[in-house]
Amino acid sequence: MSLNTERHRELVFPATLPLSRRAALRLLGGAAIAGAAGGSWQSSAIARQEAEQPVHGGEITYALSSDPPNLDPHIASGTAARAVKLMVYNSLAQFEASGDMVPDLADSWEISEDGLEYTYALKSGVTFHDGTPLTAEDVKATIERIQDESVGASRQVELLNINEITVVDDLTITFRLEQPNSALTEYFALPETAIVSRAFLESGADLNTEMMGTGPFQLVSREPGVSTVMERFGEYFDGDLPYLDRITFVPYPDENTRVLAIQGGEADVADYIPWRDWEALESDPNLKLASGEYSAFMAVQYNVREAPFDDPNVRVALGYAFDRNAIAQAAFFGRASEITGGVIPPTSWAYNQDLEGMVTYDPDRAQQMLADAGYADGFTVTLMSTSQYGMHQSTAEIVQNNLQAIGIDCQLELYDWATVVQRHAAGDYQFRIQGTAGDLPDPDWLTNFFGSGSPHEASAGFSDPQLDELLAEGRTTLDQEARKESYLQVEQRLLELAPWNFLVYRQDAEAVKAEIQGYEHLPGLLGYFSGITLRKTWIEES
Fold it and tell me: Cβ–Cβ contacts within 10 Å for residue 53, how many?
């Protein structure tokens, strides 16, 4: 993602910086990590014009598509859970509705000339919900927890490159890397790298059920499956935020019930609006949709430990069996685009147009390739999906029909979302429908899906040394054009091995009452973090 001109003016480039280094600053991939080749980076606030001045007070009910399976900020467990966690925790940086990355708990950061040392200056006056001040020791304890394999943190692999953490003083911390990582600060902007109190960790608190951070809201009550209630944290460090006094998150696993809740006024915001309902909600004067394109993609994910999916020839063949246009129309009512090449979306600087059309709907070719692989008579398999999200179920039903049409006996098992999450983590499936997204603009997000040691490798058993080398090459290279070439080879390798068959990129939306202001759907791959704008959400006075 290249920097737009307006945003470019806001970056602080030292006036004495040599021309070659200033050029390097512009060549690193990512929204606002363009300073990662050396020098310092500090953001100024982006002025946003509001029709009316935000007001404090009031409470809203947020209708979630699922109850959070866990509350641990370092373990990703879906967008609904992330919205809850974003209220309680902060990270060193954050993404805004504009798509820009800006400081959060960090006030600024500096990166050494060789790209191996990152020094973060923390904001002063930040306190945890228990009243204790944020210090560099809390940051150190957090990163060490994420690196601990026994924790199962979602970003463990990405942060293992940090081999030395030095607390310089109470508000300064330095990370020394084994190799340059052009996406590091973007990783520090993710909810899954949220900073947790060292004392809270050492107290033996169970982060799956207890929450205590520096965020705009603090947890006051939780009844699993019923509600999670947050109240405004009066000592929040970020100006007048938050505006709301209270947010009550209520799970509505049934899509129809969730839509009725927002239409009937029981809820003020509702996530994962079914695509069949978009038109009706868009025409309702009491509601509005917050939506974005290329926010997530649908795919078939294979457990490569399970025959016949241990054979890449089978996986590649099945890529031609799936009718992506039928999925776009039936599951998403046309609000999706087919993926016929690489999975990096057109909104990224690393997108490769030349890969388009590499994998199309061609059932005859799929059958011939399966015969060549020794499966002329087909086989019997079980597909795992969820009935909790219509998009997953509809996609699964089309995939099932497509496979049956080429002689494969495909059984479909549908579970609630929490069960799917558990079975995915345990690797307890043959293949499944996956709906997910890259978690940051930088294409190094692919590491979290396909790098050795990643959560998905633990789930599905897929690992490839050549792919690891290409991912490392893309991560450690500073020149953007060279990085783009690396990611072209990454995507070509993924098409050769097909650990996943990519299906469609979809649009996503939340429904919001007309009087609710400040809530926005983040652009592109950041759509999963839209809950962060709840800290800026307010209720327009009638």
Answer: 6
What is the H or E stretch that residue 106 is in?
strand 106-111
* Beta carbons within 8 Å of 281's beta carbon, 6+ residues apart: 259, 262, 263, 273, 287, 289, 511
Across the chain, mean pLDDT equals: 89
Q: Which fold has domain 293-506?
A: Dipeptide-binding Protein; domain 3 (3.10.105)
Q: Which amino acid is at 122?
A: L
Its pTM stands at 0.80
Query: Does pLDDT of 37 surpass 60?
Result: no
Please report which confidence band the pLDDT of residue 9 belongs to, taking 50, 70 and 90 as the band edges: very low
Backbone torsions φ then ψ of 64, nearest 5 degrees: -95, 145
DSSP letter for 298, please. Answer: E
Instruction: Please say whether the beta carbons of 35 and 103 come within 8 A.
Output: no
Instruction: Output the pLDDT for position 194.
Output: 98
Category of 260 on φ-ψ map: left (φ > 0), alpha (ψ -120 to 50) or beta: alpha
Sign of CA pseudo-dihedral 333, 336, 337, 338: negative
- Every domain of the chain and the residues it spans: 293-506
- How far is residue 200's CA from residue 536's CA, in Å, rounded to a whole number? 27
- Spatial contact of 288 and 280, defined as CB atoms under 8 Å apart: no
Q: What is the dihedral of CA 253, 259, 265, 268, to 10 degrees?
A: 70
Tell me if 37 sits within 8 A of 25, measured CB to CB: yes
Give the contacts of 468 (CB within 8 A, at least 6 positions apart): 451, 452
For residue 58, the tally of other CB atoms under 10 A from its CB is: 17
